[in-house]
Design goal:
Elements (H helix, E strand, L loop, with lengths): L3 H11 L6 E4 L6 H4 L5 E5 L8 E2 L14 E7 L8 H11 E14 L14 H7 L3 E9 L7 E2 L12 E3 L2 E3 L3 E9 L1
Parallel strand pairs: 1-2, 1-4, 2-3, 4-5
Antiparallel strand pairs: 5-10, 6-7, 6-10, 8-9
């Protein structure tokens, strides 16, 4: 499920997209309402509200058209597959040449099972998993709206910031966001 900052990011960098648009993990989509007049498809591994096509994107033989989507949106999904390298390859095939992939994923976050929770990603990890895309507009955010903080490609997480809960120190929740263009 997307954070409130994901829509802010997409509004800033993807408002001129005409479609077709694909959202991966589209249950209760905030993007479907934003792109209301566009060719928008929601997909998820399970049926639900705003899911148009149920499919497993770790299956290279899924029914979605390759090299077709002008924008693919993938928010807080990749950490839920045990084989992210396969899913990343399948997602890359869906984006048309010159098209965009908006990617957001937890960097520091609690365990959240759906169907399970396997990984956390840095900017470098996403660049490695998606070598067919050129990346830009790197940002960190929390789960609170209006916390997007843009950094350069090698920007480091603010190591000095911690949350104090019941007298103990923890790293705050943090998401990464970035925009890839298929080359």
């Amino acid at each position: 499920m997307a954070s409130p900052n994901d829509l802010l990011y997409v509004e800033k960098f993807c408002s001129n997209i005409n479609g077709p648009i694909l959202e991966i993990g589209s249950i209760n989509s905030q993007f479907k309402k934003y792109f209301i007049d566009k060719d928008f498809t929601g997909t998820n591994i399970e049926p639900g509200d705003d899911v148009d096509i149920v499919c497993d994107l770790t299956n290279k033989n899924n029914t979605l058209p390759k090299n077709y989507y002008e924008l693919v949106i993938c928010c807080s999904v990749l950490e839920h597959t045990p084989t992210p390298w396969i899913m990343a390859d399948v997602i890359s095939e869906l984006v048309k040449p010159g098209g965009k992939l908006y990617f957001s994923s937890p960097w520091v976050w609690k365990y959240h099972k759906y169907p399970d929770d396997y990984y956390r990603y840095s900017f470098k990890a996403i660049e490695f998993l998606f070598p067919k895309l050129k990346w830009s507009n790197y940002a960190y955010s929390s789960e609170l709206k209006d916390t997007l903080t843009f950094v350069d490609k090698d920007g480091l997480f603010d190591k000095g910031r911690v949350e104090i809960v019941n007298g103990k120190k923890y790293l705050p929740y943090s998401l990464i966001s970035m925009l890839g263009t298929k080359i």
